[in-house]
Amino acid sequence: MNILRSRWGAAAAALLSAACLIQAGCGDTSDRPTSAPASADFYHEQPKGAVPDATGGFGGESLNGDFREKESGAAVWDNSKRMTLGSGPNDVRTQSLSTTVRSDFPSRTQRRIFELMPGEELWVIAKGIDAPVQPADERPGCGALMAKVPNVEKEVPVPLKHTSVVGNIDGYIATVDVTQQFQNPYDSKIEAVYVFPLPENAAVNEFVMTVGDRKIRGIIREREQAEKIYNEARSQGHVASLLTEERPNIFTQKVANIEPGKQIDINIRYFNTLQYDDGAYEFVFPMVVGPRYNPPASADGIGAVARGANGKSGQSTEVQYLSPSERSGHDVSVSLNIKAGVDIQNVRCVNHNVDVKTLTETERTVTLSPADSIPNKDFVLRYRVAGDKIKTAMMTHKDDHGQYFTMMLYPPAELKQVQRSPMEMVFVLDCSGSMNGQPINQARAAISHALQSLTPRDTFQIINFSSTSSQLGPVPVIATQANIQKGLNYLASLNGSGGTEMIEGLKAALDFPHDEGRFRLVSFMTDGYIGNDPDILHAVAQKVGDSRIFSFGVGQSPNRYLMDRMALLGRGAVAYLSLNDDAAQVMDRFNERISHPAMTDLSIDWGNMNVTDVYPQILPDLIVGRPVVVTGRFTGEPSAVTVGGRTGMQPVFYTVAVDSRETNHDHTGIGAVWARLKISDLMAQVSRMPEQSHEIQKSVLQTALDYNLMSAFTAFVAVDSMTKTEGNFGTTVAVPVPVPAGVTYDTTVEN
Amino acid sequence: MNSIETTITPPSLKQRCRVPLCWALLIAFDVSLMALTYAQDGDPHSDVRESQSIESTIAGPNDARADAIRFEAIDVFVDSGKQSLAAWQLELICRSNGVEIVGIEGGEHPAFKEPPYYDPRAMNNNRVILGAFNTGAAENLPTGRSRVARVHVQITGPGDRSWHTELTTSATFDGTRIPAKISIAKSHG
User: What value of ipTM does the predicted structure carry?
Assistant: First the structure.
């Protein structure tokens, strides 16, 4: 689909709309005046394979048209002057014509006549006469036509009808079933391709394809092998599906040979642990991949292109976005069953309207409101629990692989009694185009609040980056009131535009000399919309030194993988600043954390448990309000463990008791969570030890195969050998998605 | 040295007993398999054979090119006679080259309609261990010969393929092992 943009002239677009209204053939036009000084004559031909859209019109509602020249009459048409707007076999072409149109066209049975005033322009849109015609006008690479009219949304048919999310939360482990209902709305066969997000710590270990009333369980295979199987099945006409991982939080689902009108469901099941933050658990289901920026030389990034502009980004993975005037019929439903095990005190959904039902003091059901079912923002549910009762939350599981445990380590209460040392606070603000508007306003509000809580013992610096970076001054300044005011003024001058060269911001924040008398803390405020995540994480690992990184994911659908990994590598913590959050509250929690020293140099005495394979292998610091989840394998009986570390130079030890009744309760999913953490840890080692990447890859592959898990090197494939469709695999159709709420389409998506 | 004792207030038994349905099913599946394994190993006086295995050949075109790829499905049947079949586990191995398992489908009886689980560690291109159970009442379980699974495969090259199939577990709803026969056949839909 291509959109006639304002640069072509509002008058032309309006005229086109008028033309299309007529050409859509919604009524008899014979009653229109025919004695106008100029007129044009077309006939309206429906291409083979095209299907009426949801509005009942052809190729769209009445503002759309899809016209084909029948005769080269007078000045009406000139193929040699056509302007290609689309790509692919069914290119749609436009031509701007003057109104010197003859009025002596021969009469035709199917003709429609409309009028132009002198000096007006006529825009004609046509399908290439030499182009293959199927499957329809609504597919990537060709696209039907649409005039962009403010405040009028056009529903475009997409091959993904509905996504259902059903989650069961037990303690802090979630089991989530995601069902994607693919449907072919066209009149010829298609392959659907959908790039979608999942939580970065999701252990995806089930994949089932439903064809009619038959369910076929997918097989985990080495990625290259799975892709070969899928491609072969696809080319032979078999219904088949393939799930691959592009990033730990971005996946591609392909479903081949969906026949017209048919539906194929894909069910994915994953396990993950919930975040725990200042007494509240957080369940997150991301709904859309934000538009990523890729550095010019990059080819392995995540491209962001307009619907129909497939291949334009030049990236190995590409997401197609609906324009603001388009909407898809794809909606999402979310249903959660929470069994916290302890009293639930408060349930709040950050970005959505939900219905919360209290079953008991410890159980809730949460359902997303059907009126809030557009998948353009993360589903974030927070609920507080009775804090002290969960501080020994060790959960175990035993299967034929062995015994596993997962436990949350909390910082000792004493930390709250100790005050921090002077700080060198560095704020790094992403001022790229994707932050334009609400996101950057929210980030500025947060930094402003944090600035005003600094003391004259501290220094601060403000760095902003987009295509390049700049900063408040050459060196950090003391946090006097005057300097803070300068900082606030500087902040107010910053706006969002340009690329996201995060590496420039990183260099500016981490490369300058460290003030030995102060504790350096770097706060990144960004949506994380970059396609070169591995490069950035590698740079963070190389440059972080003694600095601590606190990452703030800004907006309704930030890149949580990047945010989490940056904080982990920077031995800090991550926080999220939704557009619906109170920025001051978020920064107050941040201030509370950094107002006390972290417990560092952690070690664990496992008591009677014989523990191996603990992940993360390098234990992060314990920060007030932010526990650390540790997962491992063990033999023997669960027992009390002792956690040791330092606060400043002072050694600290504390004992974590274990409730045998709880550990006797089997928690399926811990094995998968452990394996996923192992894979994540191994993948992080690649950037630290690139010379061992081959060995690490083998280890990741074996773990993923043993535990039936998605990874960068494995994929799920399912083939229905019993269903063989006619002909080749048809047209590949990407599922276009909306840009996340609050993100400006024009500054983030390639057209 | 600072030392902090943390205390636990354990959830009530009522609370602990509430587990998600899917987990309950998985746990029940594990328990069933363990029970079946125990039954298999622990009754020296049983007249039920340890397992039942067969060798089968499934015909393929002899005139296909060496690199020709086709997709087929193998139907797996278990015949439990007059007894109701509540749980089963089997191993399927192709002894010929050029076979890759590409999907696993459930059986024909509603009790085993869901696709069975496979053991990922035992999964190879040409080998799979499958198992399923159903805790329903006996009258809702299959008797006689019933297709319990369909295995979709990709086959490269011409000729027949030899299969080894071993039924390692077949049991009633209470975990009692029962004699059963296994067979496979090329699926024709």
Answer: 0.78
